[in-house]
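Researcher: First entry.
Model:
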Amino acid sequence: MQLFNKQKRIHYLGFNDSWFSVLGILFLSFVTNYLFNNPSERPSIELVLIGWFASLLFTIIDWLIIRYILIFLRKKYPSFKDDLKRILLLIFAIISVILLVDLIGGFLMAKFFSLLGFNSNHYVNIKVLLPIILITIMTMAIYEAVYYYVRLKKSIRDEEHTKQLMIQAQLDTLRNQVQPHFLFNSLNTLRDIIEQDTKADAKDFVDNLSGIYRFIIEFGDSHLITLNKELQFAKAYINIQLERFGHNLQLDWTIPEDKHSLLIVPMSLQLLLENAIKHNIVSASKPLLIKITVTTDTLVVRNKIKVKSTQTPSTKTGLKNIKKRYQLISNKTPVIKNDGAQFTVALPLLQPLKERS
């Protein structure tokens, strides 16, 4: 029968109960024999053994039937919301099975012992069955406790897995926002270079751009990368922008070597550099200086605000994207400050996982 298949049994019970069944049956058989024993009689050792084997037989029958019903009910009512219904049905089944099996067994034992000349009325005493029913219910309560614990762990594990899938989906969506956005701006830059400079400059730009896209292909699916990798990507991006702006775009950054192994959200620094260039004047009369520094656990990017006269309203998509990605993978978020004269963003630098754990 399918429900007695070992794997199915373990699935519905929550554990392999072979040894628990053996010990439980032995214990209940001794209790049953003791309760049915008449203290006023002094039967021989042979009759004691016969009585115990009979009790063992009836206990095995009780146990297997109740255990089968237990598995059947768990298969029929697997949900947490059905727990009360399942437990009440199980208690009813325990009472019914013990009354039926043990009364029939007691009646047969009474007939047997009466033929041997012993008083056998106590073998059909319903009151004797009450402690057996209570002990059996307590035994099944152990099954229920184990089953509840196993299901609770699985529920927490499934919930965590679902949460991880949702986070992964959101991160994928955010990454997919960044990459087309970057390509669009890069093509605009290429157009400006073609209009302003020579074809050789445009060729250099395309070469640099292909290198950047190799980086995106390699690390685009990562939640976090080392600061060293992000700096390499940012430098490649700045080299492209220097093709367009020359000395009008200036960077001041000195990052200590011991910080290079810290982790950062991919393309976050590049987005901040792009944001600064996009929203500020970059010209010979008003060169744009972007300063990048590192504190204990943050990468700070700041620039003076030089608003363009033809400035289009900012949707702040890039900043929102960075903040959302940090929120999904850590309990830290970027700090953004705008005092009207200077724009500052502090990106959290995260410790590698083995150091955080």
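Researcher: Second entry.
Model:
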Amino acid sequence: MATGNLQRPDLMPDLDETFRLEEEEEDGASMTLVEHLEELRWRIFKSLIAVVVGAVVAFIFREPILRFLTLPLPRLSDSLRLGPHGELAGKGLITIGLAEGFTVFLKVSIAVGILLAMPVILYQAWAFIAPGLYRHEKRAALPFLIMGSILFVAGIALGFVVLQYPVQWLIAFSAGDFVELVSADSYFTFVAFFLLAFGIVFEIPLVLTFLAKLGVVNVETLKRRRAAAHVGLWIASTFLTPGADFYSPIILGVTMSCLYELTILLIRFMVRPSQAGT
């Protein structure tokens, strides 16, 4: 039986070709660890410069920014006798200590500066990570980056819209028993954490969709555990909202539950049926 002409099928060329094509999709030449660290240093430096520039701009326009952030306060004027600019019982937001007023301006300016610099920060982060990704990985990651930014901004926007309700409840709760003197530092800290909480929870659809793409979760799992998920989200909402007011956990809990249901719809449309479990 002649076997000299029989050859074992060689699968390695196909595998080598696959890796070669993947390598050709990479952008830029390979870099050493020191070069990566140097690039990271410059990316961080450029991001910090953008934050400083944004903070300086915010500090210059600090008065209109502060008036905007105190918009929830004048809406309480009927019940709490607030003045046209948020004055409470003839007083505005108070400061405790000689330097607290400057510190509040500085904190608000830095926070607004970070928001203004966020496009630059995201670009610098993407520019550092992207060269190490294959082209198909970039196509998969970029929509998540864009959608995550949009959802975060949407969460902050909704948080600011509903901010008046926890502020109203907290002030009205003690108005009959105490003279409510609202510290500027405590108010803006409350606003910052409240808006940040809304921004974070709006990332829930993105996180679950990403897990669905990885095959970790699917639609059937989300539907089957819907009741437990809603209970967990409502419990989490009580810890994510600052203050002991009645409205904040409810508003955040309803929002998180709606986002959970929205996630199920997004997975149906954005993830392949084999991954989505449908």
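Model: Note on the second entry: Residues 32-270 form one domain.
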